[in-house]
Structure formats: C-alpha cells, structure tokens
C-alpha cells in the first residue's frame, strides 16, 4: 500500500544499531530522491547509513541526554514533567556527514521542536562520540546489574565502573582526533584523565550527586528486561575495536562486553556482583 503512495520527504531510521543496514535500505525506496534519511539512533551508525543510502542523502541526529522507555506498545514514557531545554540543554543535534550547515538540518530541528530543543552541529563525529561515551558508561552497567542509574550512583564501585568505561571511551575518541563534545556533564579530557587522583575524585563526586531522583534504566537495561538482543557489540565492543586502531587499551570495556554477552546468551544473570566481576577482570 505504501509503495503506491507519493514519496515521503524524510525517512527516519530509529531501530537498534544492528538493524541499521537493512532498515535504511528498506526505507530509502519510499523517500523522494530529493529527500533525506535520518539516523536517529545510538552508537556509530552513520557509516552504515552512508553505505545504504549515500552520505549525501544521510543526516545524523544525535539525541543528547534524553531518557525514554516503552514498556507498553505505543506508549512512550519520559521521566519528569519538563523538557531538557527548560533547563538550558539542547537535546537534538542534527548534522551532515561532511560538516556543512544546510537548510534541511534547520527543517529537521524545527520538526522536532515540539518534542524538545535542538541545534545544528557541524561536528557530527564529535557529537556522536560524546553520545557513545555517555551510552558506553551507563547502558551496560545498568544492563548487567538490573539497577537504575540513581541506585548505581549510590555505590562507589558502581560509580567507578562508569568512570573507568568513560575514561577509556574518551581516550579512544580523542586519540582518533575527534573533537569530542562534553558528555556526562564533563569534558572528554576530564573523563580521559580519570587516572589522576584529583580528577577521579571530581568525577566520582559528580556521579554521587546523581544518586537521588528518577531511578531510570537506559535502553540496554530495558533490552535485557525484554529479552531482546543488546547493542553491546555496536557500543562497547566498537570502542574496543576503535581503541585497537590507535593503540589505546580498553580492558574495562572488554570485560564489560564479555559480561553483557554472557547475559545476552543466558549464561549469566544480571546483578550488582557483575560490577565487581568487570572491574576485577580488568585489574581494578
């Protein structure tokens, strides 16, 4: 039926990262030749989008610090009663692969405005890596423990695992030469410098302050509850692969990948003891 209708102006790919290629190829046939396809996903999906529809036709949409859940069909939940822009934060960052500022980006941000604030970015890769850092430090920890982020932040070792994951991810992104934007309320350089005692204490204190409020479970934790495959290979395993290319060791991310893969395979149960398992396996 859709194939008989006029073309759409814009296509959104909003599936799990491991489904990017086929989903982008499928939706591409229904979008006007002068239209564009948006990757509104986590992880590093833009190269797959470019391969499927062409880099000139693809737009990256990074969604910064937005928490949503869907526990019932068709019912999207979001914590709180205000939008992030009410607190000075722009959620949506739209960018072209070549870093140009074009009218279609402004159109996209305007379309999304009723949901929350957005802006144009000419630093798509820096924004993407920042979101990857945010996801990599929180998602698998919540997924492997079955806990919400506020509860995790009550525990020193829960905070440490997040900091160690972010440290490695930030170090890899910076080593690749990306202008990594701030994530988790701190600069990428601060996360990458977590081995320094005074920096670690600063980061630890910042996470400890987030031990109250909505005890939200991010997307990977929701996947585990629902029994669906996680994005661990596209998230933390990707960080490890990229680290190997620039000679940055990522032992904590590697250990985290092994634990979540075991949970995915039904070989391990979620629980706080997995925090110790990951840290000790990585030598912490």
Write a structural description:
This protein is an alpha/beta fold and 284 residues long. The protein folds into 2 domains: 121 residues, Rossmann fold (3-Layer(aba) Sandwich); 156 residues, Orthogonal Bundle (N-(1-d-carboxylethyl)-l-norvaline Dehydrogenase, domain 2), CATH 1.10.1040. Helix content is 46%, strand content 13%. The chain has 12 helices and 7 strands. A 5-stranded mixed beta sheet has the order 1-2-3-6-7, sandwiched between helices. Strands 4-5 form a two-stranded antiparallel ribbon. Helix 3 links the parallel strand 6 and strand 7. Helix 4 crosses helix 9, helix 6 packs across helix 8 and helix 10 runs antiparallel to helix 11. The protein starts with 7 loop residues before the first strand and ends with a helix.
Overall spatial form: globular
Q: How much is the radius of gyration in Å? A: 19 Å
Structurally, the number of domains stands at 2
Strand content: 5-15%
Distance between the termini: 57 Å
The CATH H-level superfamily of the largest domain is: N-(1-d-carboxylethyl)-l-norvaline Dehydrogenase, domain 2
Low-confidence stretches: none
Number of strands: 7
Mean pLDDT: 94
CATH level-3 fold name of the largest domain: N-(1-d-carboxylethyl)-l-norvaline Dehydrogenase, domain 2
CATH class categorisation of the largest domain: Mainly Alpha
Q: For the report, how would you describe the main beta sheet?
A: 5 strands, mixed
Count of DSSP H/I helices: 12
In helices, the fraction of residues equals: 40-55%
